[in-house]
Amino acid sequence: MTPITRRTLLIAAGAIAALPAAAHDYTAGDVAIGHPWTRAAGANGNGAAFMQLRNTGGQPDRLLSASSPIARTVELHTMTRDGDVMRMRPVQDIPVLPGQTVALQPGAFHIMMVGLTAPLAQGSRVPLTLRFERAGEVQVELAVEAAGARGSGTHTH
Predict the structure, then answer these.
(1) What angle (nearest 5°) sits at the alpha carbon of residue 45, between those of residues 65 and 64?
(2) Which domains does the chain show, CATH number per domain?
(3) Is the distance from CB of 111 to CB of 76 less than 8 angstroms?
(4) Whose CB among 41, 89, 132, 157 lies 3.0–4.6 Å from 120's, allowing a Cys bridge?
(5) How many CB atoms neighbour CB 80 within 10 A?
């Protein structure tokens, strides 16, 4: 091994070691799932899951459903404006077109967790299984943010 190759390998190893130990991104087929999170909530209440879905492939995909052991029911929802009122309503699926990123975020598409069986404690992580039409099934962990969080920037990776 030449000194230049050895030095390049050492630099690459150092860069890899500097990455976060537990990245908060997941992949299912051609769908990249970025930073799934939720807000702190009490048991028997409801919670919502948020994340980024990016289709890196050439075929359209759809998020068909989600499930979690921490909720009695999990539904896909969107928010729509009806005059001056925002209304939440269930949707059959969430399309993710090729090259598109869909933001599941407060006030837009989100995953509703109804009837929490345990509290969502800030700083913890909770499991959520996503089912896509083409990409299949993947389990992610939701980082639990503060009760009033508006985005995923406050958790540590």
Answers:
(1) 5
(2) 24-145 (2.60.40.1890)
(3) yes
(4) 41
(5) 10
